[in-house]
């Protein structure tokens, strides 16, 4: 038997202990080990019951995800075969679940007859997040054990439940108290079962209770998830599999589940979502930051600035239990800022997501100050003041004077040069960028901007803090806009230019939302405010590279005071929540086109999509070449988690991989030629893109 599963016996009980670090993924060797162990225990007449547990780490994190792209998930024995073998056992099988049972891990437990779990265990079927469905019996066995509605909810949301919840739902038999050993508990449980002559249970004999649900149950369920799952392929297949469980005997339901699983596994969506899974893990591995780099202790946090951004950042730290000081020189603004934080918590409490006591606990961690001397003992200081270099430098000079040695000094700038800010202090090694995304208490993405002299232990420390405040940190280098806003620039530039060439805001937004963005570029600018876009461009004239037509339409709207939603007019007109076309936009676009010598024409949807997306991808290639991002998947994480790029497309770089880099390159060259001087200026393919395309490689090769 392989070392991946340890087989041992004690008295009349056989143990199959998964032994494959780090999470007992169910790769081929583990499947083989389980199958062999089972056969051995079944044939041994002295063995009366079998315990399946873990020898190392958590119970089981599911199928080995890396095997899906490699194709080796289909190497025998197949996971469903092994689980069917377990389910059919004539001897009672008890799963001993420590830590977690996810995906195939839970399916393994469901194929057993009884389940014992530690009280900290999490049990779930998160396959839908990988673009697939539970393909080893989960969609057929869970409805039988936990009921259709509970199973459907768990499978389609992918959200795990606690051991206690699982017990209430009926698929955990015993929850083990804190500190108790789960294998010992499972052994005791097995002995009780044997003493009672309890039978082995076969899922095939368990009925599915469809009758207690209304006839339109599935139709209503589909409606309820429609908005949230727009564009995703797997959720509908999950539903179909559970529907099958309602009408088919287990053996046929499993067959149907297998077919649906295969329909999902070879889709671009499954590749994209699995790409993002590994991207998140890769982002934690930062070049130059060794595994053994010691993080600095962080107990006290200070945030400079009590505006929307400052307040949102503060909330993250309060939520995670950090004593936090909000500092603002303006006492009134400070009071307002505290009021907004309290109000936000109270709204959450009204929705039942926080108790009144939790609100007070969080508010109790907050102190305020108008004086820098009050934050001299802070371990981490985050500046969130007005986005102007002089203002930021003055803040950092003061922080340098007042903060204790070793304090980490972070800036929340989204565009400014972090090296320059760092040089305003005598300790540039302690300075770093922490670019939160608005609303800062909601958005998961955190761009961690590493300046030239930022020390590795500072990076290590902020990555640890980011995990505590439940953010997804992605480390990037210094350049205008870092990764996210820098890639956004060409995307927006082309959307605006297309308006001059003949597209309408409605067309652009439709094409982009059909692609999968929650909102098109024109609606997004209206939401954020045209004035922000205008003022940023004024502050960074270098971005336009002297192109006089750059952003011309935004300039016209800005001059008319049409800043977007906040003024009731921008690319669209707003009447409360109602949005309609702004007829002036076409006139303004025609005027700007005339002024800049642009001939208006009919623009195809394909051109809108290619011209918005391909320059963004090309910018990503330049970013990679310059080492601003360590890997293409980092750009993808930033785009999916900060800019609404559809997760099911895996991010812009993965999308390019999927459609082929040669196609992206050819299209860029086509527009370079077609668009004359404008094309020459803006459609030059990045050398890295050219090289990878020529070599037949993808961005994953970088
Ligand atoms: C499935 O089961 C399909 C079946 O229904 C049907 C099949 C026919 N595979 O996240 P961490 C690696 S689909 C491969 O940093 P944590 C991970 O890449 C599966 N590798 O630790 C990382 O490697 P590295 C359904 C995996 O403690 C290391 O383990 N299951 C897998 O923060 C540590 O991971 C899931 O979707 C895997 N299944 O979180 C669960 N799991 O060190 C996916 C982990 O080289 N996994 N790795 O970077 C998770 O959600 C989290 O990893 C987990 C641990 C909660 C388990």
Let me know the largest β-sheet.
Answer: 8 strands, mixed
Low-confidence stretches: none
Average predicted local confidence, pLDDT: 96
Tally the beta strands: 19
CATH homologous superfamily title of the largest domain: 2-enoyl-CoA Hydratase, Chain A, domain 1
In percent, how much strand structure appears in the residues?
Answer: 5-15%
Helix percent band: 40-55%
Radius of gyration: 28 Å
Enter the CATH topology name of the largest domain: 2-enoyl-CoA Hydratase, Chain A, domain 1
**CATH architecture of the largest domain, please?**
Alpha-Beta Complex
- Shape, per Cα inertia axes: globular
**Can you identify the CATH class of the largest domain?**
Alpha Beta
Strand order of the largest sheet: 12-11-10-13-14-15-16-17
Structural category: alpha/beta
Tally of separate helices: 30
Which ligands occur here? (S)-3-Hydroxyhexanoyl-CoA
- Count of folded domains: 3
Q: How far apart lie the N and C ends?
A: 39 Å
Walk me through this protein's architecture.
By secondary structure, the chain is an alpha/beta fold. The chain has 3 domains: 5-265, 2-enoyl-CoA Hydratase, Chain A, domain 1 (Alpha-Beta Complex), CATH 3.90.226; 300-476, Rossmann fold; 484-701, N-(1-d-carboxylethyl)-l-norvaline Dehydrogenase, domain 2. 49% of the residues lie in helices and 12% in strands. The protein has an 8-stranded mixed β-sheet with strand order 12-11-10-13-14-15-16-17, with helices on both faces. The longest helix has 21 residues, at 605-625. (S)-3-Hydroxyhexanoyl-CoA binds at residues 22-23, 25, 61-66, 73, 79, 100, 102-104, 107, 126-127, 130, 134-136, 138, 281.
């Amino acid at each position: 038997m392989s070392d991946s599963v340890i087989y041992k016996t004690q008295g009349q009980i056989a143990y199959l202990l998964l032994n494959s670090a780090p999470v007992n993924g169910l790769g081929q060797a583990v499947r083989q080990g389980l199958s062999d162990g089972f056969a051995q225990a079944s044939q041994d007449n002295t063995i009366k019951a079998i315990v399946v547990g873990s020898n190392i780490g958590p119970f089981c994190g599911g199928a080995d995800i890396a095997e899906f792209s490699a194709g080796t998930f289909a190497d025998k024995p197949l996971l469903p075969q092994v689980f069917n073998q377990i389910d059919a056992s004539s001897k009672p099988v008890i799963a001993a679940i420590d830590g977690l049972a996810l995906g195939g891990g839970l399916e393994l437990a469901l194929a057993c007859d009884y389940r014992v779990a530690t009280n900290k265990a999490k049990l779930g079927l998160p396959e839908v997040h990988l673009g697939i469905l539970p393909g080893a019996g989960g969609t057929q066995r869970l409805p039988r054990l936990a009921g259709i509605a509970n199973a459907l909810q768990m499978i389609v949301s992918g959200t795990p439940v606690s051991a206690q919840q699982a017990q209430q739902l009926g698929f955990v038999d015993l929850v083990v108290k804190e500190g108790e050993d789960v294998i010992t508990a499972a052994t005791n449980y097995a002995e009780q079962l044997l003493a009672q002559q309890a039978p082995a249970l076969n899922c095939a004999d368990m009925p599915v209770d469809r009758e207690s649900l209304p006839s339109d149950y599935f139709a209503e369920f589909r409606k309820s998830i429609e908005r949230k799952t727009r564009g995703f392929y797997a959720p509908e297949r999950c539903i179909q599999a559970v529907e099958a469980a309602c009408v088919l005997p287990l053996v046929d339901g499993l067959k149907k589940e297998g077919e649906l699983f295969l329909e999902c596994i070879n889709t671009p969506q499954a590749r994209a979502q699995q790409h993002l899974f590994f991207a998140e893990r890769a982002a934690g591995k930062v070049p130059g930051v060794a595994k053994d780099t010691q993080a600095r202790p962080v107990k006290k946090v200070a945030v400079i600035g009590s505006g929307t951004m400052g307040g949102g950042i503060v909330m993250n730290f309060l939520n995670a239990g950090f004593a936090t000081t909000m500092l603002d020189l303006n006492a009134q603004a400070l009071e307002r800022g505290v009021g907004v934080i309290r109000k936000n918590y109270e709204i959450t409490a009204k929705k039942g997501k926080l108790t009144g006591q939790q609100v007070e606990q969080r508010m109790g961690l907050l102190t305020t100050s108008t004086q820098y001397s009050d934050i001299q003992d802070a371990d981490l200081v985050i500046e969130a003041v007005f986005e102007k270099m002089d203002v930021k430098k003055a803040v950092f000079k003061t922080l340098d004077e007042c903060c204790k040695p070793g304090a980490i000094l972070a800036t929340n700038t989204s565009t400014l040069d972090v090296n320059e800010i760092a040089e305003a202090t005598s300790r540039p090694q302690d300075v770093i960028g922490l670019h939160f995304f608005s609303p800062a208490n909601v958005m998961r993405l955190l761009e961690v901007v590493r300046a030239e002299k930022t020390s590795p232990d500072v990076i290590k420390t902020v990555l640890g803090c980011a995990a505590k405040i439940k953010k997804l940190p992605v480390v990037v280098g210094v350049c205008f806009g870092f990764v996210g806003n820098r890639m956004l620039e060409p995307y927006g530039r082309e959307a605006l230019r297309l308006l001059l060439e003949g597209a309408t805001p409605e067309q652009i937004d439709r094409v982009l939302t059909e692609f999968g963005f929650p909102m098109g570029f024109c609606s997004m600018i209206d939401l954020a405010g045209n004035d922000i876009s205008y003022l940023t461009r004024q502050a960074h004239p270098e971005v336009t590279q002297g192109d006089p037509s750059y952003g011309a339409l935004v300039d016209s709207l800005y001059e008319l005071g049409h800043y977007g939603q906040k003024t009731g007019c921008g690319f669209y007109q707003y009447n409360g929540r109602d949005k309609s076309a702004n007829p002036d936009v076409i006139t303004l676009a025609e005027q700007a086109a005339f002024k800049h010598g642009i001939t208006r024409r009919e623009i195809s949807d394909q051109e809108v999509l290619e011209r918005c997306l391909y320059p963004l991808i090309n910018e990503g290639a330049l970013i990679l070449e310059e080492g601003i991002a360590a890997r293409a998947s980092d750009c993808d994480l930033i785009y999916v988690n900060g800019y609404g790029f559809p997760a099911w497309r895996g991010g812009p770089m993965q999308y390019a991989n999927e459609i082929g880099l040669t196609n992206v390159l050819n299209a860029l060259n086509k527009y370079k030629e077609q668009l004359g001087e404008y094309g020459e200026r803006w459609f030059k393919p990045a050398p890295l893109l050219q090289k990878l395309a020529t070599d037949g490689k993808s961005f994953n090769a970088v």
